């Protein structure tokens, strides 16, 4: 870990063993009918898919055919208007439609302005995909009323129903005459009528069977298709333009809630935003919540939010379960029931159990965050590269239970809650915790914070749940999360997590077990990073006391504990005692690990710093060069431990008068740390301050001032003005200012 910054601070190691709403009041209707031409049809056998066997003769209608309006410019949003004669849309426009302007313009671009539309018998089709309850159907309804007049007609098919019957209903609404008596003939008559005139807009709502839709599409060559489906992945040979539908933005969520419950106002903005966040900005959930708030005028948004939290699982609250009697598109008003439609369809050639298991595992991970497939596979006990794994993830995507981002599943917060509801036996959480400990532990051992980034949010979510459920693995999860945050200089959070891990283990094991010694040691390292040397020393002394009792004096854990207290003694000015600690730790480490182990390099480096402070520069240089040689051999030349060694070597060289050599070392260390931690990390600031000190010695006071100012700014922002390192940086800048005068 980073040592305290003096006039030219050095680094020392501390070891750690760790738009429009989609909802509103909508009445069902079967659209507008108009008298069409006379059609005679041949016989056709229709049991599901339709094949046209002969051509229908369409007589000219007595009245002039409808001429579609001229389409607007691609970037001009259309207003609502009447549908063309003979259209069939089963829903009226939504009175509280909110936002979705970009989605509507995108659909208009696809269906009215794309190059594909101009090709003779080809078709331009757009697919709106997304979670159940995200508002795909309502978006399609709105598009019909805004852009329907630019087509020959608008025809709605509920694709999860009897498709031939739905097509027949569309033909009946067109007023085709004479109208055949049998369903197959009616279907063929309707499909042939759709080949006449200008292109028609056909909505295939809630598609669940891609293969069936693909076959029906061939029967509609002159139509423009708008398909809504929970399925994200579609065969490329279908030629579909995929348009994912996203959840609402916070401002649109708030707008919808206020429209549904007008008594709410901007004064409650923070509470409304909290409700929207709790519901994941999912339009259907917001619609149900808004209606609930409207029906309960005495309930404040704050109290509603409190009720959701007290329920534990929002899906169990009456507002999302059984309060509303209808919704705009007549879908289920029980949100869990909406998700259950997909859950119940999870079956695919034996992959049902695996897909459901993976979905339950995903439920405990962080919502709205891509989940590494490696983590899911390890938790499920399978190889991530197997065909079964790919099939299970594809199935989840097809049913809208997860969105796949670069092959990694992402769950909406409410879907995650639904997934946890399905884990009735709590069977997957322990396996997930063990898998996460394994992967996060390996990532932590690399020393690179970025290695933990894909796991960080999931580690936080699982650690929190495991802690609440008193899972045995909770303390290890908390410690791994704390270690990552410590590397990221999030010291307050790391301290709280280490402290909580200690509390958990003390409760489980008592106060004198090895787990507790490790926890106390880890807590001491972050206290040292925060500059609280007195409390850090107490932690390390306690860890040593427990360790000697449990392990004996020559155990490798003792090398860690003794090394760490040596760092506190050094920073406190007790150099001789610090030297004794490091020499003892080296002796233990070399005996256990051998002389070329990276743990030994850590302690040897720290001994070199003490020797430097004691004035033995040649021996200090030998120690640090030895540590550098070991670390470069183990980690390569771009590791943070190497940056620490190079920085400390630069400090010794500076004391020896080799200013150019020191400058090269500091610049190299800064370059490594900026790649590892970013430009505003305290470790980077310390090395920049050191570069400033050698520039000062070289007489380049202007550049030295720039370094001191940058270092001070970083430390003030990340550690606060009262941290010892920040005060040292401020003093260095102040002293330089006097020299400039």
Outline the structure in words.
It is a single chain. This protein is 56% helix and 5% strand. By secondary structure, the chain is mostly helical. Among the domains are: 206 residues, Rossmann fold (3-Layer(aba) Sandwich), CATH 3.40.50; 84 residues, no CATH class; 83 residues, Winged helix-like DNA-binding domain superfamily/Winged helix DNA-binding domain (Arc Repressor Mutant, subunit A, Orthogonal Bundle). The strands form three sheets. A five-stranded parallel β-sheet has the order 4-5-6-3-7, with helices on both faces. Strands 1-2 form a two-stranded antiparallel ribbon. The protein has a two-stranded antiparallel sheet with strand order 8-9. A hairpin with a 2-residue loop joins strand 8 and strand 9. The N terminus is likely disordered.
Key traits:
Arc Repressor Mutant, subunit A, 56% helix, 741 residues, elongated, two-stranded antiparallel sheet, disordered N terminus, single chain, mainly alpha, Rossmann fold
């Amino acid at each position: 870990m980073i040592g305290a910054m003096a006039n030219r601070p050095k680094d020392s190691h501390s070891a750690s063993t760790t738009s429009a709403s989609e909802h509103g009041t909508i009445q069902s209707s079967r659209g507008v009918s108009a008298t069409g031409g006379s059609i005679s049809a041949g016989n056709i056998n229709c049991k599901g898919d339709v094949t046209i066997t002969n051509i229908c003769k369409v007589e000219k209608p007595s009245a002039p055919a409808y001429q579609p309006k001229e389409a607007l410019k691609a970037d001009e949003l259309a207003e609502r208007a009447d549908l063309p004669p003979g259209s069939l849309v089963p829903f009226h426009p939504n009175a509280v439609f909110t936002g979705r302007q970009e989605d509507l313009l995108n659909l208009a671009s696809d269906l009215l302005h794309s190059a594909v539309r101009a090709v003779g018998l080809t078709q331009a089709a757009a697919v709106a995909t997304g979670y159940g309850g995200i508002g795909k159907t309502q978006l399609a309804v709105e598009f019909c009323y805004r852009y329907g007049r630019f087509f020959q007609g608008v025809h709605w098919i509920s694709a999860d129903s009897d498709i031939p019957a739905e097509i027949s209903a569309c033909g009946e609404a067109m007023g085709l005459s004479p109208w055949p008596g049998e369903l197959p003939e009616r279907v063929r008559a309707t499909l042939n009528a759709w080949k006449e005139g200008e292109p028609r807009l056909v909505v295939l709502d809630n598609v669940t069977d891609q293969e069936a839709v693909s076959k029906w599409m061939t029967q509609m060559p002159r139509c423009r298709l708008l398909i809504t489906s929970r399925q994200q992945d579609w065969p490329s040979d279908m030629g579909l333009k995929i348009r994912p539908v996203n959840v609402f933005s916070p401002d649109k969520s708030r707008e919808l809630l206020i429209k549904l419950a007008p008594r709410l106002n901007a004064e409650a903005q923070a509470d409304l935003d909290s409700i929207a966040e709790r519901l994941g900005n999912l339009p259907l959930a917001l619609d149900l919540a808004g209606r609930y708030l409207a029906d309960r005028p005495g309930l404040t948004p704050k109290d509603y939010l409190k009720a959701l939290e007290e329920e534990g699982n929002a899906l169990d609250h009456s507002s999302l379960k059984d309060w509303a009697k209808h919704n705009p598109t007549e879908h289920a008003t029980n949100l869990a029931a909406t998700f259950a439609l997909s859950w119940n369809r999870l079956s695919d050639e034996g992959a049902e159990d695996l897909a459901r298991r993976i979905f339950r595992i995903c439920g405990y991970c962080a919502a709205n965050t891509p989940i590494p497939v490696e983590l899911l596979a390890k938790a499920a006990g399978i190889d991530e590269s197997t065909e079964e794994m790919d099939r299970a993830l594809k199935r989840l995507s097809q049913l809208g239970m997860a969105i796949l981002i670069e092959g990694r599943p992402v769950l909406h917060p409410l879907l995650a809650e639904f997934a946890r509801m399905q884990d009735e036996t709590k069977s997957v959480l322990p396996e997930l915790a063990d898998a996460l400990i394994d992967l996060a532990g390996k990532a932590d051992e690399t020393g690179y914070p970025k290695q933990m980034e894909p796991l960080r949010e999931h580690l936080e979510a699982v650690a929190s749940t495991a802690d609440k459920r008193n899972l045995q693995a909770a303390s290890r999860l908390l410690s791994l999360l704390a270690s990552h945050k410590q590397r990221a200089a999030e010291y307050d959070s790391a301290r709280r997590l280490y402290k909580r891990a200690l509390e958990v283990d003390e409760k489980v094991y008592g106060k004198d077990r090895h787990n507790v010694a490790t926890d106390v040691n880890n807590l001491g390292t972050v206290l040292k990073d925060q500059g609280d040397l007195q409390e850090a020393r107490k932690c390390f002394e306690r860890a040593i006391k427990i360790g000697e009792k449990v392990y004996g004096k020559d155990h490798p854990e003792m090398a860690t504990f003794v090394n760490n207290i040596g760092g506190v003694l050094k920073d406190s000015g007790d150099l001789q005692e610090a030297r004794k600690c490091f020499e003892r730790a080296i002796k233990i480490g070399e005996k256990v690990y051998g002389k070329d182990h990276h743990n030994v390099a850590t302690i040897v480096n720290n001994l070199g710093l003490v020797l430097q402070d004691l004035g033995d520069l040649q021996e200090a240089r030998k120690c640090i060069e030895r540590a550098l040689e070991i670390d470069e051999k183990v980690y390569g030349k771009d590791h943070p431990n190497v940056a620490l060694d190079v920085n400390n070597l630069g400090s010794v060289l500076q004391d020896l008068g080799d200013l150019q050599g020191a400058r090269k070392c500091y610049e190299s260390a800064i370059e490594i740390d900026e790649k590892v931690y970013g430009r505003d990390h305290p470790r980077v600031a310390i090395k920049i301050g050191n570069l400033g000190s050698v520039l000062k010695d070289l007489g380049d006071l202007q550049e030295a001032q720039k370094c001191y100012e940058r270092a001070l700014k970083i430390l003030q922002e990340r550690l606060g003005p009262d941290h010892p390192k920040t005060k040292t940086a401020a003093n260095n800048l102040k002293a330089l200012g006097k020299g400039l005068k």
